[in-house]
Amino acid sequence: MMTPPLVQEPFKHLPRISEEQFVFIVCQHGTEVSLKTRLLAPTGPFRLAFSRPGLLTLKLIAQENPQNPPQLPEHWLIRQCGHGLGQVRGDRAETLVSEALAMAGTNWDAVHVYHRDSQLPGLKGFEPGGTALTDEIGRLFANHWHSSPVSADGENNTESLGAKLPLINQPCESGHQVLDIVLIETNQWLVGHHTARSRHSCWPGGVYPVGPPSEMVSRAYLKIAEGVAWSGLPLSAGDEIVELGSAPGGACQRLLDLGLKVTGVDPAEMDPLLLAHERFEHWRNKTSAVRRKQFSKFRWLACDANVAPTYTLEMVEDIVQYPTSRFEGLMLTLKLSSYDLVDQMPAFVERIKSWGFSRVEVRQLAVNRRECFVVAQRPVGWKRPGRSLAMLQSARANAEKRRMRTAKKRQAEE
Hints:
Blueprint: H1 17-20, E1 22-27, H2 32-39, E2 46-52, E3 55-60, E4 78-89, H3 93-104, E5 110-115, H4 132-143, E6 167-168, E7 177-185, E8 188-195, H5 220-231, E9 240-244, H6 250-257, E10 261-265, H7 272-275, E11 280-283, E12 300-303, H8 309-320, E13 329-335, H9 345-353, E14 359-363, E15 371-377, H10 389-413
Parallel strand pairs: 5-6, 5-7, 9-10, 9-12, 10-11, 12-13
Antiparallel strand pairs: 1-3, 1-4, 2-3, 4-8, 7-8, 13-15, 14-15
C-alpha cells in the first residue's frame, strides 16, 4: 500500500486557546463528575462539549477580553490536558492518520497515541499505557515522515523528505510541541495538542512508561515507580527509606530496584523475594507499636495504608514530628473512599506543610485507583531546631496523646 503524502502546510504558529475554542482533558475513569463540578462554574469560561469515561472536552465561551484568554484548566485529577482540534472517524486506521495530519499538520516534536481509560486501573485487565494498537497507529504516523515504512532496525530515513521525524509514543522533553491522538474508540479519535512543561506532560497520555519486573509482587510497584518519577525527589542509591503498611511489598520491591535501603513496617507477611534481599529489613509490627526514635535513621518515608486520609496523616504526623526524626521527604497515598474528599485536599496539604515541608504536591497517578499520591519535601539544608529537655518531654507527651486519639477513633468506628 502506498504511503499517503505528507501534509504540506503545518502550523507555523500554534493557535491560542481563544482561537481554537476547545480543550481536552484526560482523567481517570470515574472522576469526570468531580472535574465537571470544579471546572464548569456558571460564571467560568468553559462549557461542556463532549464527554466519555476518562475524557472531557470543554468549549470556551465568548470572552470580554480576547487579548487575555483563559489558561488551560489545572487540577490534580487531570492526567493530561491540551487544545482540542477535532475528531476523526472511520474503519481504516491509515485513513484516520491521514485525516488527523490534514487537520493538525506535521510540525510536531512528538506524537503521542493513547487510549482513554476504559476501566479503573487494574480492573478487568486494564492498565493505562501503550498497547499493541497504539504501537501500530504510531508506526502509521511514523510512515508519514518516511518515503517508506520504518525499517526493522529502527533506522529513520528522512533525508528524502527533508523533515524531522518526531518522537513517536516516547517521552519527550520540556518545551516540545506534542500532537495528541486520544483513542475514544478504535474507530473514533480525538485530535489535539499540548506543550510539554511538567514531567507528566512529557509522557504519552501522562502515563509513566515503567516496565514491571517479570515477578512483580503487587501493583504497588507501579504506583511508587510513577510517584517517584513524577515527584522528582532526589532519592539516591544507599538512602534509607521506611514504608508504613508495606505488605506484601510491591513498593519496597521498586525502591530496592532503585538501590535504596528499605525497611518495611507491617504485621503481615512480606513476599519471600524481599525477605531474601540484603538491603531489605522487615519490622513485623504495627506502626503504632514501633518506638518513634527508631525512625531517626531514615531520610525518606512512604506510606500506602488502606485507611482514611485523616488516619494516614495522624500516623505520619506522629512520626515526622517526633524530636529525633530527620525526614527530608514523604510519599503518601491517600485513599478516596468518596470524591467528596477532594474538597478537603487543600486542608490536608496545609497540615503537611505545618510539619516543616515547604513543597507539598498532589496528583492522581495514572496507575492509582480511587486514591491520590502526595509528595512532600523539606527545603535543602533543613535542620530540625534544637530542643530543650522540657520541649522533648512535651513533644513525647503530645505524641502519646495523638496515638490515644487515633486508637479511640478506630475503636469507635469498629
